[in-house]
């Protein structure tokens, strides 16, 4: 399964731990969306990321190819029980993203990838620790400089 990561799963060490079989496909943009923090996480002690429709804005992230066991593990981490389940923390939705820098040297193209979208619940600013995990991945994968700069300016709980 192709998966678009935009939050803490940009952190390559976290992804290696959660989904050891994943492969990097490349840098991608989710157009007409913005990054939001609509869900409180006790683990991260603050808001955690999701995407929300927003005309003219872009969320940058990475596309990974996941094995079946990686998908099952990520579903558990993201609180996804199944399509339409009322107890989902995140819903897994297919979205079109623009693969702008494929790691295999192929041409940029529009692809469908799974994206976890939070069901809002007591959101708020992220903790410094959470935002640092997002930034670590954003810098590692060389997301666009202006996007990283905007992330750096995001308010935090601490």
Automatic annotation (TrEMBL):
Record keywords: Lyase
MF term (GO), any: gamma-glutamylcyclotransferase activity
Keyword Ligase in record: no
Entry superkingdom: Bacteria
Transmembrane segments: none
Active site: 78 (proton acceptor)
Leader sequence residues: none
Binding positions for substrate per the UniProt entry: 3-8, 130
Record carries keyword Lyase: yes
Stored PANTHER family: GAMMA-GLUTAMYLCYCLOTRANSFERASE (PTHR12935)
The protein's name: Gamma-glutamylcyclotransferase
Organism from which the protein derives: Eiseniibacteriota bacterium
Lineage: Bacteria, Candidatus Eiseniibacteriota
């Amino acid at each position: 399964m192709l998966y678009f990561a935009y939050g803490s799963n940009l952190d390559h060490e976290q992804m290696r731990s959660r989904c050891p079989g994943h492969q990097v496909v490349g840098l991608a943009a989710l157009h007409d969306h913005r990054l939001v923090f609509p869900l409180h996480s006790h683990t991260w002690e603050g808001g955690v990321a999701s995407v929300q429709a927003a005309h003219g804005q872009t969320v940058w992230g990475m596309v990974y190819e996941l094995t079946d066991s990686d998908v099952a593990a990520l579903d558990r981490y993201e609180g996804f029980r199944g399509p339409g389940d009322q107890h989902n923390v995140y819903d897994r939705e297919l979205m079109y993203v623009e693969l702008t820098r494929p790691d295999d040297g192929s041409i940029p193209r529009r692809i469908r990838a799974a994206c976890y979208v939070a069901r809002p619940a007591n959101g708020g600013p992220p903790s410094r620790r959470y935002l640092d995990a997002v930034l670590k991945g954003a810098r590692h994968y060389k997301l666009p400089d202006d996007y990283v700069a905007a992330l750096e300016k995001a308010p935090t709980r601490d």
